[in-house]
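JOB MANIFEST
job_type = single_chain_structure
chain_count = 1
residues = 499
[input]
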Amino acid sequence: MLVILSSLLSLSTTILLWLGLQVYAWLLRKDNTMRRKSVLRQLGVTSTEGRKLVGFFHPYCNAGGGGERVLWTAIAALQRNEPEIISVVYSGDIDATKDQILDKVKARFDIELDPLKIHFVFLHSRKWIEDSQWPYFTLLGQSLGSIYLAWEAMSILIPDLYIDTMGYAFTFRVASILGRIPVGAYVHYPTISTDMLARVRSRRKWHTNASAISSSAVLSKAKLLYYRIFMYHYASSLRTASFLMVNSSWTSGHVDSILRHSDFFLNVFQWSTPTAMLRILDAATTARKGKRISHARIVYPPCDTREMSSFALAHRQRVILSVAQFRPEKDHPTQLRAFAQLLNAHPEYTKSGVKDPVRLVLIGGSRNDEDARRVANLRRLAQELEWLSKASIGLSTMIDEHFGINVVEFMAAGVIPVAHASGGPLKDIIVPFNGKPTGYHAKTTEEFADALNTALLLSSEEELALRQRARTWAIQRFSEEEFEKGWNASGWKEWLLKQ
């Protein structure tokens, strides 16, 4: 009897909490009408009839990286093709003004935006999604932080369509429940993947699986349970979306796998607790209409192929170039070991008296404070463009690179790419063009050394032809125009019109 009474009390508490959330959300949407009108007035919009707001959740919109290029290219396409739509950017860059951000977009990406068709919602809680705030259980901490940040965003302004362009899937339910609006996303890489679960299960040491854990059976089992629970809820959040775009075949494969993911024991546990009622009530009131999403659409990110394609293809220096942040997953030690092995096997490349010795140049930055990063970005860009115009070979050793924008830049600049045989570089970027190679793949240190040597031994005619093929392929497949076509075909507009 006590068990039955306890269950009934738990169930009633759950229902009351859910009802309280629904009332809060209704009040938020009611107040949003005035906030919405205020924003439109600030932008000089007199007639609000039929005006739609598309929200982009991108807390680091002023960072100036590849993810930001996706954001601003999408907004630029929106302004060209849908002039009645207002873009709303949810940003945590509270140290910059709207004009400063748009000026940087113009300077960094050569994208000019109409300030009267864009509104910024500045968020003050961004620190809660930074990994430095969560030294332990980082995935969980950042995800909880993103939920709080999304609540702050929706409390200020609810759009008609919510699009996450940074990879915070746990914000989907916040926008869906509080705003009763459809949500979508452009996913650069999954927060967690089946590969990560497999590495913990097999107790393999990795940059996401420290040796202290991989060497302990107890800690490995505890971490596996943590990952399983996280994956379960991450998959559930992704399935909240009405549409999903991803940046590569590798990301598509992982996201599609996650969308299909199921965990029998966690399902049983979930449905045997009072929280099962929350799932039923949530499903009955969700903003998403139609069938549950089952796959993501590949939309390759826009790459800066225009400027780099102007570099001369001939008369390059014998420079092997690496452009990547100095992060563990980029695996710079493999580059150094491969270069050392190349020189050991072929000392003629650097012996005294050689007119043009082979050199390895590593360019990149580390994650710093906001102000320091801005200055470093500008310096690094100038240095990167200089080296891209004269290097012969581009080197990338990251395993399972989700896309590989640095590899695309190598090809557009006329630099022969040598990349790890995995992820985007293998499946999407360094692929045959007109039946002929556009670069080289490798996995081990020995294979990288061999690939570098093969590229160095090409005749001038073969080298020039390969550079031209790689450049042509990069321009055709990864241009801003191709990105815009994919973005427009993703289905976001259909969901917006359903509102």
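[summary]
The chain has two domains: 16-302+483-497, 305-478.
The two ends are 48 Å apart (CA to CA).
exit_status = 0
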